[in-house]
Each structure stands twice: as C-alpha cells, then as structure tokens.
C-alpha cells in the first residue's frame, strides 16, 4: 500500500514532482560538474607539478647558493699574469665544464640520510643538477682582445649570447661556439623518486643500481633527436665519454634536463664529491606534508624546504585562473543553487501537504499513526530526491563530457621572478638558462606548461551528489512531514463541515 | 459502551471563545443506533469528534469500553480508531488517487493485515455494499452514492464495534439517500454495531433506535428508545 499510494500520489502531482526533481537535478549536476572540473584542475596542477619535479615527490630540499658558488665558468684562457702565459692568437681550444647552477647551493650527501630519518618521510633521494657548458673556437688576436676587453676576461667571461651563439664582439676577430645542456646526476638505485621518475622509457633501459660508477647515460628523446643520439651512441659530459643506454620521454613542458647520469659520476666530474643540490622527498601521508616539511627544516636548518603546495602557489596562467574559478565561483554558485533547490523542494512539498489536509486527516481518522503519515510524505520526497539524484548525475556526466570534448588548453607558468640568477651568459653564469633544478628551478626560470583540462567524475563525487539530492528530498519531506504530523485528525471533519 | 460525563468543549476564535459542548452527559449502550439531530452550529460534529477520539474535550471524560479518550495518548487514540471505530463522512473523503478496492484497504493498513488478506477482506466489504464490479474504479469514476458505499465499506472492513456517521446522506439525492440508509441499517442489524448518526434529516433520524437533539451544546432526549429489532 505504501508504494502504491506513493506512486499514485507522485503521478497525481507529476508536474510539481518533476519540477522539484529538476531543481535538485540542476543543483546536483552543477555540484558534480564543478567537482569534476575542480578535480580536473587539480589533476592538471598535478601534471604540471609532476612535470616539474617528478612523480611522488611531496617536498624538495635545496640550499640557497653562497656567494662563492655559481661560477666561475671560464675558458681557462687566463691572461692576468703576463703575455708569456697567454696562448697565441689563433690557438684552437675546447673547454667542457660541468658546473652547478647559480640557483642551487650544494648540500652534503649525508643530508639525504638525515632527511630520510625524519619522522613522516617515506623516502628521500639526492640528485645533482648541473649544466655542461662546452666552449670551443680560436683565440682572438691578443691586441684586439685587450683593446676590446681591457684584459680582464680571465675570470670567466662568458659569451654574450646564450647557447649556440656565435658569441663574438667586434673586438673578437675569431669566433667560438658555445653549447650547453643540462645533466642530472641521479641515484641509480632510487630512480622511482625525483625528476627521472616523471619520464617514461622510450628505448633501451633506465639507469640501474649496478650503474653507480659506470659512464652510462640516459637522454631525453628530444635531446637525442636534436643530436642524433641512439642507444649505444656516446656523448661527452665534461669531456668524458658516456654511453647512451636508454632514451626517455619527458612530460610536455617538463624541466629541461637533457641527460641523466649516475650521481657518483656527476659528483666526480663536477668536483662536487659527496654533494647533492636537491633532495627529493616523499611523505608517508599526503596530509602530513606540511608537518614533515617543518620537521625537515628543523633537521637541516640551512636548507630551503619547498612543498608541492608552495610550488602550486607560484604557478600562474590560465590554469591558476581555472583553479580559482572552480574553487571560488563554482563552489559558491553550487552552494547557492543547492540552497535554492532545497528551498524550492521544501516549499512545494509544504504546499502539497497543505492541499492534502483533508486526505491526510482522513487517514488519521482511519487510525493511521502520525509516524505512518509522515513516512508516506517523506517517502514521496525521497523518491523525488532520488529521481533528482539520478537526473543530476546524468547532467553531471553530461557536463563533464562537454568539458572533456572541449578540453580547453590551460597554461601554467611557474617561476620567472624570484631567485632569478644570471642567465644568458653574464659573467660567470652559464649560458642558456639555469640548471634544471626542480622547485628551485621553478622559482628561477619561467617555465610554461600547457595541459588540457579534463573533468573526471569519481565514485565519491557521485556519492556526494546522490547524498545531496536525497538530503534535499529528506529536508523537503521533513518540512512536509512536520506539517502532516501537526495535523489534527479533527481538521478532516472540520473541513468537511 | 460509551459513557460521556460532564463533557465541555470550548474553542478559541477571533470573536472570542465558543462553547461547542456544555457539560454534556451521555451513555450509549453497545449495539445502539443513536441519531443526533439539531441545527447547524449546535455541536453535533464536535460531539462526533469526541466520540471518535479525533479531538479532546476541554473538561469531562469520554470513556469507550474503559478507555478515556479525553486522556488517552495520540497513539492510543489512533489504535482505538484503527480497531474499533469506523467513520463515514458527508463528503466521502476517499483518497482520489486510489481505486475503490485500495481505498477500502487503507483502513486495514494500521492493523498490519497481510496484503493478500487485505485484498480479500476489502473485496468482501465492497461486495457487502454491492460494488464488486467497481473495485478498480477511482473515486472520480464513481457516482456520489457509489463513493459513499465505498466509504461505508472502508468503515466496516475492519469489523469495528462503533460506526460514526456525520451526515452520510448530506450530499446525495433522495433515492440514493434511502439506498445508503438501507445499507447502513442492514449492516447495523447484521453486525450489532453501536451506530451514532448525525443528521439533519428527520425522516432518516426517525429510523434510529434513539434520537437526541443538540441545542446550544446540550443534549435533549427527543424520544424514548424504540425497539428496532
């Protein structure tokens, strides 16, 4: 009888029930779409952050450089002690130096162990992010050289243009070539954390624990393509020949590491034995990242500790705007529509109950308890709420499908202002931009990543939507039920009289 | 048996308090057919509400088979109505979305009767009022007389001890009025009901065992009890 009566009653006021269900559906659909878009934005942010510092990294530990670090990068063509030490004009030379970027100071490798022992740290791995700068050419005429530069270039005068520039001034009658690429020394035993973790193997193999002291390298596909490298090719890093054992594909717009080599080799070639300049940390719980970061800061006071949320805060561009839109406008719009839908459902249900005073009073006169009458009213509202939920979920999926079909491109720009070091070949600075550090790099070199927004609806969002719609139905039913419960059965007879 | 003692009912209205029942005493033995007459606004319907436990007197007691409806909880009153009291209203008060059969079944819902038994008993009740062929019809598809027969079937399907009827023929034409009264009278005789009938119609009231008249909230015995057997 409960269901028969419920179904007939809903059929009788089908238009009103449909209106209430539609109201709830629109609200729920909006909540679901906003939640999906918000999740899409978060996912896009995740992709951006992942491309910047690798999968699974929650925190990075770096150190601000001291004044003495970051150079000198010279040609090794000193002239300050007299003409007899100066090579003759026309002498060809090649210099291949591996140096730490000016943005990242060195940390003792023992810091990794220290960080790893901090409570809440699941894993920590050190890396050394370096720039290999190769300068080759002929020395210019000494006379013109001294006229042009006043004999002071010995402390590492870099070419005035960035990489591959034909860095000549009018006083330089000879030309020379400058090229650079970024090299990251990674712990071959811990490649699951850090920048290498964000890449996917294209050909060959990745670095492995037996490669600790081997002259082997993994290069990114783009770099391999540019330099015609294949698995088995050799490349020169700091004048040492390394065999390419694999190529990896880096995420679009990821940090510009070109070559990965074993950490120990990078330390040896750069003269930074026993040093790293970035420690990648994963926390045991995502929710405890800030607390873990604080503990690391206590454990290594000289270090700069950066969390992924710190980096996310530095991200600008349309992705940032989309995040703001989803988190602010979307959220409040959803809440406003939800409240409106709940009010509408409550008022219409109250109105329906008021029109049924005689009917409900008659049922009470027949011996129906107030609880049974209330259950009937609430049941009707719940069914409307459930219908609204089903329709709302469908609307939400439709909204998400539209977002996925359009897949708007969002750009995220990180860094570009803070800690900007000398780039482009200033005195002592490496040409071609900073070394490819992760968080530190993000703060130093503007780095733009384009991601496409996708809206994904997960089970929790659907559950939330259903709960909201059912809550709306329950709320409306409670209001109507309250009215029905207060109804005196005598009212039925009084109405008739 | 009903025993009403010193029953007073006052209503607060915008124009001041209205005395609907004034220190009323009444005893209705089991199986009696009592007709309550009187002009409009004299307290007839209020008396019926007190008898049915639909409202409570301001003072006094309304005792049905040992239960004082004036002091019973709402749940107790509901249970009493569900088991022992059948109502027939002037406007039939059928649920418009339910068929005749389903309307009759609504009276058995609070008694937790199994659905199959509910259907059987409802069909029997409709048969007893001559509406078997209209069981699946909605109230809107039935004439006034047929709707009132459905209402009577609904009141009697639970085999109550008491039948309270408030102007049951008030909305019917003369022929139908007599048909309905014939049905009610037959059922009263067959089932030994205590039957309280509120009516304006003297002809109909004259068929009762006992007639009382309400005036200014008080009862006046119209005639002595007649033997209706």
Descriptive tags:
heterodimer, A: 497 residues, alpha+beta, B: Rossmann fold, 6-stranded mixed sheet, 10 strands, 32% helix
Structure overview:
The complex is a heterodimer of chains A (497) and B (229). Chain A is built from 14 helices and 16 strands. Chain A folds into two domains: 2-49 and 319-408 and 453-496, no CATH class; 64-302, no CATH class. Chain A has 497 residues and is α+β, with helices and mostly antiparallel strands. The model of chain A is unreliable at 69-74, 78-83, 145-170 and 416-445 (pLDDT under 50). The longest helix of chain A is centred in the first third of the chain and has 40 residues, at 14-53. Chain A has helices spanning 2-12, 14-53, 110-116, 142-149, 221-226, 263-270, 289-299, 308-314, 318-355, 357-365, 370-406, 439-442, 459-486, 490-496; strands at 59-62, 92-100, 107-108, 121-138, 176-186, 200-204, 216-220, 234-237, 240-249, 259-262, 275-276, 278-283, 304-307, 315-316, 409-414, 447-452. Chain B is an alpha/beta fold. Chain B has one domain (28-42, 71-221): P-loop containing nucleotide triphosphate hydrolases (Rossmann fold). A six-stranded mixed beta sheet of chain B has the order 6-7-8-3-9-10. In chain B, strands 2-1-4-5 form a four-stranded antiparallel beta sheet. In chain B, helix 4 (115-128) packs across helix 5 (144-156). The relative contact order of chain B is 0.19. Chain A binds chain B through residues 1, 4-5, 8-9, 11-12, 358-359, 362-370, 372, 488-490, 492-494, 496-497, and chain B through 45, 48-49, 52, 54-55, 74-75, 78-83, 85, 87, 89-91, 93, 95-98, 102, 105-107, 109-111, 115, 118, 154, 166.
């Amino acid at each position: 009888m409960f269901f028969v009566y419920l179904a007939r009653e809903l059929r009788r006021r089908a238009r009103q029930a449909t209106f209430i269900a539609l109201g709830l559906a629109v609200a729920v659909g909006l909540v679901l779409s906003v939640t999906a878009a918000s999740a899409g934005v978060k996912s896009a942010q995740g992709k951006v952050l992942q491309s910047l510092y690798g999968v699974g990294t929650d925190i990075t530990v770096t150190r601000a450089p001291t004044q003495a670090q970051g150079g000198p990068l010279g040609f090794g063509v000193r002239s300050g002690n007299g003409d007899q030490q100066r090579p003759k004009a026309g002498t060809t030379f090649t210099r291949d130096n591996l140096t730490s970027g000016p943005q990242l100071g060195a940390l003792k490798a023992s810091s990794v162990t220290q960080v790893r022992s901090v409570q809440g740290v699941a894993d920590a791995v050190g890396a050394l992010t370096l720039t290999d700068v190769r300068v080759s050419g002929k020395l210019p005429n000494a006379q013109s050289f001294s006229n042009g530069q006043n004999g002071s270039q010995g402390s590492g005068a870099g070419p005035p243009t960035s990489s591959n520039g034909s860095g000549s001034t009018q006083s330089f009658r000879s030309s020379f070539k400058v090229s650079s690429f970024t090299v990251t020394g990674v712990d071959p035993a811990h490649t699951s954390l850090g920048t290498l973790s964000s890449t996917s193997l294209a050909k060959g193999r990745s670095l492995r624990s037996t490669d600790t002291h081997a002259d082997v390298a993994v290069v990114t596909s783009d770099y391999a393509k540019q330099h015609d490298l294949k698995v088995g090719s050799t490349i020169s890093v700091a004048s040492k020949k390394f065999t390419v054992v694999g190529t990896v594909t880096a995420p679009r717009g990821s940090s510009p590491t070109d070559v990965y080599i074993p950490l120990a080799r990078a330390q040896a070639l750069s003269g930074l034995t026993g040093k790293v300049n970035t420690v990648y940390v994963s926390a045991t719980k995502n929710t405890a990242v800030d607390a873990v970061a604080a503990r690391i800061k206590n454990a290594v006071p000289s270090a700069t500790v950066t969390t992924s949320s710190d980096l996310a805060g530095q991200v600008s561009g349309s992705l940032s705007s989309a995040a703001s839109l989803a988190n602010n406008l979307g959220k409040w719009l959803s809440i406003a529509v939800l409240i409106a839908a709940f009010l509408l459902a409550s008022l219409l249900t109250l109105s329906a109950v008021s029109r049924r005073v005689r009917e409900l009073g008659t049922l009470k006169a027949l011996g129906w308890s107030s609880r049974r009458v209330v259950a009937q009213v609430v049941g009707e509202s719940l069914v409307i709420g459930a219908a609204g939920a089903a329709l709302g979920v469908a609307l939400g999926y439709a909204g998400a499908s539209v977002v996925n079909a359009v897949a708007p491109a969002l750009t995220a720009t990180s860094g570009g202002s803070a800690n900007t070091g000398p780039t482009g070949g200033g005195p002592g600075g490496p040409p071609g931009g900073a070394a490819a550090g992760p968080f530190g790099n993000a703060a130093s070199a503007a780095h733009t990543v384009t991601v496409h927004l996708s809206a994904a609806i997960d089970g929790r969002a659907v559950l939330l939507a259903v709960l909201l719609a059912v809550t709306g139905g329950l709320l409306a039913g409670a209001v109507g039920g309250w009215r029905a419960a207060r109804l005196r059965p005598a009212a039925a007879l009084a109405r008739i009289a | 048996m009903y025993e009403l003692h010193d029953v007073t009912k006052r209503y607060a209205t915008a124009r001041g308090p209205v005395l609907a029942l004034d220190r009323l005493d009444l005893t209705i033995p089991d199986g009696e057919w009592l007709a309550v007459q009187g002009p409009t606004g004299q307290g007839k319907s209020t008396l019926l509400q007190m008898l049915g436990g639909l409202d409570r007197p301001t003072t006094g007691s309304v005792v049905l088979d040992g239960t004082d409806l004036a002091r019973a909880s709402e749940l107790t009153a509901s249970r009493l109505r569900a088991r022992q009291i059948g109502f027939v209203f002037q406007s039939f008060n059928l649920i418009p979305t339910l068929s005749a059969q389903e309307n009759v079944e609504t009276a058995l819902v609070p008694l937790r009767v199994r659905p199959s038994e509910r259907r059987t008993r409802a069909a029997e009740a409709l048969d007893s009022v001559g509406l078997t062929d209209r069981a699946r019809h909605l109230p809107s598809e039935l004439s006034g007389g047929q709707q009132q027969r459905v209402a009577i079937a609904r009141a009697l399907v639970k085999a109550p001890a008491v039948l309270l009827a408030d102007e049951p023929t008030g909305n019917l034409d003369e022929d139908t009025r007599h048909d309905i009264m014939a049905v009610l009278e037959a059922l009263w005789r067959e089932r030994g009901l205590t039957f309280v009938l509120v009516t304006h119609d003297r002809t109909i009231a004259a068929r009762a065992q006992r007639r009382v008249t309400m005036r200014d909230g008080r009862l006046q015995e119209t005639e002595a009890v007649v033997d209706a057997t």
